[in-house]
């Protein structure tokens, strides 16, 4: 069990974490026809908007209630009402997801009561589903905001009651914020191979997968449909990925009675085997040949790649569930996680990380620990690139945000295929960082070359015909 250490610092020099409202906004963006609304100042929204646009390379419909100095003191209910009315008139969303920020949370307003009153007296909002999640910046990070937003959507949009007397051949999927669009697509295809339909909440593979629409759309285009969310109670089973999805999974099971299986990670051979076994059991079908083939490919790449992972010293900085999954991945291939830095300490995943110590800190802590422990690879998001440059180490980008490389959402790192590709990518980093041996490097270990082999002779050569 890892020891969790929280450095005593008065400030974060180089922040690792992204805020909880940012996580909530990403969850809301996984709903079809959605507009996330930050209840706070314009600055709170603009910072999150910048990160999201740089990461996804897409325009984002993030909106704000634009709380000013007077509203900060007297209350922001009027700003919330005005923002909702303007959004419904101008953008016509099917769904508005509200994420509160630290600015309004510190005043202690009754957000739920304010929203109920607004919806009751404004007929213009009758056709729009509106959900609010309390996500102050000072409590938690990206995973926490995502989890709270998903829980709020389940409680507000899922039809309650045990409806399994007439079940659909459906599997509910509650993905963690660390899963990319490609991860969700891979998971959906695997579930479909067993004859099931997957309802993913939230589904960023439909809205944030980098597609070009035929016509401009202000709200999100693609994602989980509101009608499918309502019918999640008719599924056979629910699969949740990541410890931060435990609360949403428990909320869904409590509302509908649909049983849940939570996977801490789906990266690696063993966790993927567990998922495939579950799907085979639920479907009553043998594992499809295509899935077996992918497993065989992963085994082959594990054999090819483990030479490059053995005894490597790796430093990882990420949100807790991503950190946990990556640490298990590296440990399973023979590497040693010498530095593990988490963005927040409120996750049970941290205690199970295969490292002597987990630091709850920032990228300054990460860089110092990596240098002190002789790390050979840095694994973190794009903000770790300066540390990698200063330390002269290879850098594998993982997490949010990744803004200095293309295709972050199209990179799959789960199940058999994704784990295979992850091994290849990191093994190639190790290979590229290894200095190439030249003949001069072997001079001190080679025996002297005999004079006869150097072309030296002691007599004139004899002519022959």
Automatic annotation (TrEMBL):
<dbReference type="InterPro" id="IPR000510">
    <property type="entry name" value="Nase/OxRdtase_comp1"/>
</dbReference>
<protein>
    <recommendedName>
        <fullName>Nitrogenase iron-molybdenum cofactor biosynthesis protein NifN</fullName>
    </recommendedName>
</protein>
<dbReference type="GO" id="GO:0016163">
    <property type="term" value="F:nitrogenase activity"/>
</dbReference>
<dbReference type="GO" id="GO:0065003">
    <property type="term" value="P:protein-containing complex assembly"/>
</dbReference>
<keyword id="KW-0535">Nitrogen fixation</keyword>
<dbReference type="InterPro" id="IPR005975">
    <property type="entry name" value="Nase_Mo-Fe_CF"/>
</dbReference>
<dbReference type="Pfam" id="PF00148">
    <property type="entry name" value="Oxidored_nitro"/>
</dbReference>
<comment type="pathway">
    <text>Cofactor biosynthesis; Fe-Mo cofactor biosynthesis.</text>
</comment>
<dbReference type="InterPro" id="IPR000318">
    <property type="entry name" value="Nase_comp1_CS"/>
</dbReference>
<comment type="function">
    <text>This protein may play a role in the biosynthesis of the prosthetic group of nitrogenase (FeMo cofactor).</text>
</comment>
<dbReference type="InterPro" id="IPR050152">
    <property type="entry name" value="ChlB/BchB/BchZ"/>
</dbReference>
<comment type="similarity">
    <text>Belongs to the NifD/NifK/NifE/NifN family.</text>
</comment>
<feature type="domain" description="Nitrogenase/oxidoreductase component 1">
    <location>
        <begin position="19"/>
        <end position="430"/>
    </location>
</feature>
